[in-house]
Design brief:
heme, Cyt_P450_E_grp-IV, 23 helices, 527 residues, four-stranded mixed sheet, alpha+beta, three-stranded antiparallel sheet, oxidoreductase activity, acting on paired donors, with incorporation or reduction of molecular oxygen
Length: 527
């Protein structure tokens, strides 16, 4: 067998390694220690690869010691499509990624494997220490970054709050205030001036304002006519981006050394996290004073006040939980809505059907009623179809506690990363048919049971909200927010791209449209 190694990408890897090792001219004292570490690590890699890599496992070309580092590095800017291609060629829709500098990773688009991970054998597939290493500096001990008893404790408290009607009403009222007083006037201004603007940025600002109101009872006022710079929003974006880059790094110890030396991107991450912690700690302390001084019933509407009143968590736990809530609600809904409006612009016949048959006759005043929002079934189908093609979270990983075997026969070793892959799942022919690349919201009417309720099978071939014990508690609130915002816009306006270039789907902690979404706003014919 001949082994072909792309010389260009070998050169790129060597160039990055030279840049990394040049650090030792500045910090020579760490070189002996690191050299010994690398030798021991390479020895360990060889032994593990010989033990773990069955000959019949699907995946990219894999070589001794370096594993699939070369093809991984070559495809590092198109991992989503590369993984999707490999999965589509795999008989089980599962592949194994072995590469130098990273733990063995199993990537799957098989719904039976997803169900096994997220539900059947849930306890064997926690987030795990490797996940916490990457996101722990940012998310701390918040609900999205912890396992075991700490997770159960937070989940129990949060699940009670998220099912409360009072929180749902609070969310709708916050949406009404932000959309009617801020979003729609800005769109009116952009339409009147015929000005192109970044619609993705506007939606992200809206989502950030709403989630801060709901989580903190605090309005950062990011959405305004000038769309001025917001230090807190910028800190969240920088922390999110750099944390995501940790997970995508071809060689993981590079970012760890940079963190230890407090240089480069890791220094920027620390500064962003310090700013986030400082801002939220100030809000927590002010809220505690307010709760003591005022009637508790008037101050317990937002999640922060509810957690303080519950008295089950210390200040650091409350801070970390709030950061998790903000991260969950900040980019996910705005990303889904950005791609939704892009897809509608490509399919005006679907937009016309949605507006003329479902939204046109709904009075604006009734949008605040939960029952009205819940009945928008075609709008929900359009949103689900959008997230099938462009999921806000492109992949999610767990780490096996003990050896296991997935339903498709893939063997898992303790410590392996097991990743389910919503982006690839939305592109599997065996799951969605030959028209899997097409935007067809009607397919969701066929996937629904009585009264629009989801069949159990759809949870595991469309796991954008996870499933099982860790299913997203904010799922219904997310749909409420998206339906309210989309309906409010489409009843008045059409959103059209400012250029014809196809956008690029960029996965970070949450995916977004690379470079933003430049649009023009036009009044629709029903307005």
């Amino acid at each position: 067998m001949y082994i072909y190694v792309d010389s260009f990408h070998c050169f790129k890897i060597l160039k990055d390694m030279v840049t990394f090792f040049s650090l030792f001219t500045i910090y020579p004292f760490i070189l002996p220690f690191l050299s010994l570490t690398v030798i021991l690590y390479l020895s360990y890699v060889i032994v593990v690869q010989l033990q773990q890599r069955p000959r019949d496992v699907a995946g990219p070309p894999t070589y001794p010691i370096i594993g699939c580092l070369i093809p991984f590095y070559k495809n590092r800017y198109r991992l989503l499509d590369w993984y999707t291609h490999l999965l589509s060629k795999s008989p089980t829709q599962t592949i194994v990624i072995d590469r130098l500098g990273a733990r063995r990773t199993i990537v799957t688009a098989n719904p039976y494997n997803v169900e096994y991970m997220l539900k059947t054998n849930f306890d064997n597939f926690p987030k795990g220490k490797p996940f916490n290493e990457i996101l722990g500096d940012f998310l701390g001990n918040g609900i999205f970054d912890v396992d075991g008893e700490m997770w159960y404790k937070q989940r129990k408290m949060v699940s009670h709050e998220f099912t409360a009607r009072s929180l749902r009403d609070y969310v709708v009222n916050a949406l009404k205030e932000e959309v009617e007083n801020k979003l729609l006037p800005i769109l009116e201004l952009m339409e009147a001036e015929n000005r192109a603007f970044n619609f993705q940025d506007l939606l992200r600002r809206l989502a950030f304002d709403v989630v801060c109101k709901v989580s903190l009872g605090f309005d950062p006022c990011c959405i305004n006519e000038s769309l001025s710079f917001s230090p807190l929003l910028d800190a969240f974006e920088r922390a999110s981006q750099i944390s995501a880059q940790r997970g995508a790094a071809p060689i993981f110890f590079v970012w760890k050394v940079k963190r230890w030396l407090n240089i480069g991107s890791e220094k920027q991450l620390k500064l962003a996290i310090d700013q986030i912690h400082s801002s939220i700690n100030d809000i927590i302390r002010e809220r505690k004073i307010k709760i003591k001084d005022e009637n508790q019933k008037e101050t317990n509407k937002d999640l922060l006040s509810r957690m303080i009143l519950a008295e089950n968590f210390d200040e650091e736990e409350v801070r970390d939980m709030v950061i998790s809530f903000i991260m969950a609600g900040r980019d996910t809904t705005s990303a889904a809505m950005t791609w939704f409006f892009y897809l509608l612009s490509l399919h005006p016949e679907i937009e016309n059907e949605l507006v003329s048959k479902e939204l046109r006759f709904i009075e604006t005043e009734t949008l605040t009623k939960y029952e009205i929002l819940k009945e928008m079934n075609f709008l929900k189908s359009c949103l689900c179809e959008t997230m099938r093609l462009y999921p806000p979270v492109a992949w999610d990983s767990k780490h096996a506690i003990s050896d296991d075997i997935l339903p498709d026969g893939t063997r898992i070793k303790a410590g392996n990363r097991v990743t389910y892959f919503p982006y690839g799942m939305g592109r599997m022919e065996n799951l969605w048919g030959k028209d899997r690349f097409e935007f067809k919201p009607r397919r969701w009417m066929e996937e629904s049971g009585e009264e629009g309720t989801e069949q159990i099978s759809i949870l595991y071939k469309f796991p954008v909200f996870q499933a099982g014990p860790r299913v997203c508690l904010g799922k219904e609130l997310a749909f409420i927010q998206m339906k309210y915002v989309v309906a409010s816009i489409l009843k008045r306006f059409q959103i059209r791209p400012a250029c014809s270039d196809p956008p690029v789907f960029l996965p970070l902690l949450t995916a977004h449209m690379a470079g933003g979404f430049k649009v023009f706003v036009h009044k629709n014919k029903y307005n």
